[in-house]
TrEMBL record:
It comes from Paludibacter propionicigenes (strain DSM 17365 / JCM 13257 / WB4). This is UDP-N-acetylmuramoyl-L-alanyl-D-glutamate--2,6-diaminopimelate ligase. GO terms for cellular component: cytoplasm. UDP-N-acetyl-alpha-D-muramoyl-L-alanyl-D-glutamate binds at S30, T153, T154, S180, Q186, R188. InterPro entries: Mur-like_cat_sf (IPR036565), Mur_ligase_C (IPR004101), Mur_ligase_C_dom_sf (IPR036615), Mur_ligase_cen (IPR013221), Mur_ligase_N (IPR000713), MurE/MurF_N (IPR035911), UDP-N-AcMur-Glu-dNH2Pim_ligase (IPR005761). Residues 23-97 form the Mur ligase N-terminal catalytic domain. Its EC number is 6.3.2.13.
Length: 481
């Protein structure tokens, strides 16, 4: 493809050499560069691509896109200076794959909690409605019915556009994707044209990356600020920052709510561990989901489907047949008469929601035993908060390992314990080994009790000292049964 065609949507500050040349591919990792590639020098969190320009040229790059021109200019190489290489990479990737986002209806879901559930349910719903659809999510990517393993919530710009192009080739009419704050901040979604955006909620998360809550909020808002006038912006009016997302957005604005007036209003009429009876825009529907947060997620799914032109009654009919996403409030029933719930809750707010939902259903007729840990090499500030929420909402909280990564598991637990006073500590147990922690919780449970295993959900691994070991909370619970 011609370099000037790839750069058609990129603002060029300076060019040295000829941009009317043929290139064989785009790379932002110098190690992957092959003959006649264009190398984009991006600034990552761990390294700066500008340091590897010489390596990229050695490996066969014929063109370099960068924010700073190197001191030594090779007369045989084309150099293109841009303001932001990551932004340029997104736009170049989109052009390279022939703008796949313009050939489908693309809807993005952002927020701290609920992204996976909403994106996955929309994908399932539209497939049930008879539309070929794609999904980009934390759990798994799908090109219609073909599963493609997911490595990030939102892939890098090249992988993302390659997947979208695959969806176009497979005849997909719709694509639903989780949009993480990292991907917005790092411009991985630059060059994509979204037809709709959904905001779920925002609470403390990824402070290790964004440093402040304000930066985290700003990243989410940027997604809505960049929408076109043809797109819709659907926000959760129950979140105090929900309406902030709509400020300055050029998109058509809509709201969903469980509490107040909204374009898409949902009320919980009845609930139990088997599901809920909901009133959605004055129409009753039985669903197999549990909890306020899921009622909110379903409200977003319903709203987005209607905004995409689908028939309300047909959408509600299919919503009544959908099931929870893997590792999201996944309910397992023990032969001994207690219930185990495996959930991905890994933020204080998500944990509060899950624990609150369980206690609301129990109404004192059973005890809650919570198993929870915190990830290593991540935001340390939420560790004492997670421990406090687990202890205060449970009959017994068992603090254990999550993914320790390169940290000592006991040190992570010490950070969690630092959030507890003497009385709270008496309501908790500390068991470093997650398998033993789950076994202990199940051994303590009696008929009518609930064991909540929080933090990992769908994940089937544990990372200890950088090594990935197979570990699945659901498997461990079933072994205990």
């Amino acid at each position: 493809m011609m370099l000037d065609d790839i750069l058609q949507n990129v603002i060029l500050l300076k060019t040295i050499g000829n941009i009317d040349i043929n290139v064989s591919g785009i790379q932002f990792d110098s190690r992957k560069v092959e003959a006649e590639n264009v190398f984009v020098a991006t600034r990552g969190t761990a390294s700066d691509g500008h340091q590897y320009i010489a390596t990229a040229i050695e490996n066969g790059a014929v063109a370099i896109v960068c924010e700073e021109l190197p001191s030594e200019i090779n007369p045989n190489i084309t150099y293109v200076k841009v303001e932001d290489s990551s932004d340029a990479l997104g736009k170049m990737a989109s052009a390279w794959y022939d703008f796949p986002s313009t050939k489908m209806t693309l809807v993005g879901v952002t927020g701290t909690n609920g992204k996976t559930t909403i994106a996955t349910l929309l994908y399932q719903l539209f497939r049930e409605l008879g539309h070929k659809s794609g999904l980009l999510s934390t759990v798994c990517n799908y090109v219609n019915d073909l599963a493609v393993e997911a490595t990030h919530t939102t892939p890098d710009a090249l992988a993302l556009n390659a997947l979208l192009a695959q969806m176009v080739d497979a005849g997909c009419e719709y694509a639903f994707m989780e949009v993480s704050s990292h991907s917005i901040d790092q411009h991985r979604i630059s060059g994509l044209e979204f037809d709709g955006a959904i905001f779920t909620n925002i609470t403390r998360d990824h402070i290790d990356y964004h440093l402040t809550f304000e930066n985290y909020l700003k990243a989410k808002k940027q997604f809505f600020d960049n929408l076109s006038t043809d797109a819709f912006a659907l926000t959760n009016a129950d979140d105090k920052n929900g309406l902030v997302m709509l400020q300055n957005s050029k998109a058509k604005k809509y709201t969903y709510s469980l509490r107040g007036m909204a374009d898409f209003k949902t009320r919980i009429l009845e609930h139990g561990f088997e599901g809920m009876l909901l009133d959605m825009n004055d129409k009753e529907v039985n669903v197999s989901f549990i909890g306020k947060f899921n009622a909110s997620n379903l409200s977003a799914v319903f709203g987005a489907a209607v905004l995409l032109g689908q028939d309300e009654l047909e959408v509600l009919r299919i919503i009544s047949s959908l099931h929870s996403v893997s590792g999201r409030f996944e309910t397992l029933h023990s032969p001994a008469g207690y219930t185990a719930i495996v959930d991905y809750a890994h933020t204080p707010d998500a944990l509060v929601n899950v624990i609150g939902t369980i206690n609301q259903i129990l109404q004192g007729n059973g005890r809650l035993i919570t198993v929870v840990g915190c990830g290593g090499n991540r935001d340390k500030g939420k560790r004492p908060m997670m421990a406090r929420e687990a202890v205060n909402g449970s009959w017994k909280a068992i603090l254990t390992s999550d993914n320790p990564r390169f940290e000592e598991p006991q040190e992570i637990l010490n950070d969690m314990l630092a959030g507890l006073d003497v009385v709270e500590k008496a309501k908790s147990l500390t068991i470093v080994d997650r398998r033993e922690a789950i076994k202990t919780a199940c051994a303590l449970a009696q008929a009518g009790d609930v064991v909540l295993v929080a933090g990992k959900g769908h994940e089937d691994y544990q990372i200890i000292q950088g090594v990935k070991h197979h570990f699945d909370d659901r498997e461990e619970v079933r072994k205990c049964f």
